[in-house]
Design goal:
The chain contains 5 helices and 5 strands, in the order ααβββββααα.
Length: 135
């Protein structure tokens, strides 16, 4: 078995557990082999391993009623003015590379997480995808 798949969920849980302890998210949701998620109200954070493309991607999602908006973490970091998308690299060529990307993504998300809430968090997410917040 590919070491990235074998260790993906545990690597995510080790690095992103602070979402539960510090920011009130529930999770992790590990019902899928290559996907781990955390939820707080309408906010979700999903980390996915794409073995074929050799990437590990962190996405932030806001889902409430008819509104469903999601963006890659790197774009949210950039939209928040917290640095470039390179703060959340996605390379997962090897297990070590995957672990390094997850570590950097966890650090970037720790800076973004306090901004996720209410109208301003939603506006940040829509800005990250180049859209406008629905009124």
């Amino acid at each position: 078995m590919d070491a990235r798949i074998e260790h993906f969920a545990q690597d995510v849980i080790e690095r992103f557990g602070y979402l539960v302890a510090e920011f009130g998210f529930t999770g992790p949701d590990v019902d899928h082999d290559e996907l781990v998620g955390y939820t707080r109200g309408p906010w979700q954070v999903w980390l996915g391993l794409d073995v074929r493309n050799k990437t590990v991607d962190a996405n932030i999602r806001f889902c409430e009623g008819d509104v469903d908006v999601h963006a890659p973490l790197g774009e949210v970091v950039k939209a928040a003015g917290l640095g470039g998308a390179q703060r959340a690299p996605t390379s997962a060529q090897t297990r070590a590379g995957m672990a390094a990307s997850l570590t950097k993504q966890a650090t970037a998300l720790r800076d973004v997480a306090p901004l996720l809430g209410g109208r301003s968090g939603y506006e940040l997410l829509t800005k990250a995808i180049g859209g406008e917040a629905q009124r």
